Amino acid sequence: MLRPQGRRMNRVTILFASLIAVGFIIATFDVRSDSDSVADVLREGTQSVFTPIQKGVDWVFSPVVGFVDGVANLAGLRDENERLADRVRELEAQVRATDALEEEVVQLQLINGLEIAEELSTVTARIYSSGASAFDNVRYIDKGADDGIVAGQAVVDEDGLVGRVDLVSAGDARIRLITDPLVSVGVRVQSTNETGIVTGRGDGPLRLEMFRATEPVREGALVVTDGSRYPPGLVVGTVTETANAEVGFVLRSRVEPAARLSEVDFVRVIVGFAPIEVGLDDDAAATGGG
Q: Which end of the chain has a smaller Cβ tally under 10 Å, C or N?
């Protein structure tokens, strides 16, 4: 019975103390304000109590908010950078396509401006494929029998002789390059007017052989077709090694092809020339088609 009475006394004491404290606070507000209403004083008191707390909260959370904003801005910048990078790649692709088109136009202008001896008829064609391996000295063009092309015709570009046609279908044809060991070309050294034969070696310079030479050939001398198997005067290349003529011996040297065979794109097939029949079939028989 004593414990409940003690609890009741504690509650009364706490209530009494609380009323005294509230009365003291109200009296203090009344003293601080003669003209202001109690509500205004309470508002100001509340503000004065919570303002430091608000500043503390701002001080703590402002860096956090700034960090979050910074992360959001960084993500936005990353997206913008990716968009700009995609645009740059797109523009670079357009530039490459434009450059390639301009290069094609230049090559077409060069090949179409090429002057062929005796104004022989030609057909302009584009190389669309090479051989099955790097060791195949052949190229395929997009013109064929329907365009007047037949086996054995000479093929040139703006720099010189590229090769000859050796296989033909209705819509395309195969070219065997002058670097092919099966291809031989009758030539004339312009500086001496003496003739010989150049033969492909698979890669690198062509082999030059002159069986009746009486004068030496000098490095840098220009070598052109002699008009037997190919139209006369087509540039074949330049001599790379000086060689002297000796009685009873074959003069041998090397010739660098004038045509940049690894870069050839457009060519002209000379369709208006009938080669001399003698000797035409050395390599024609070997390739099965002239």
A: N
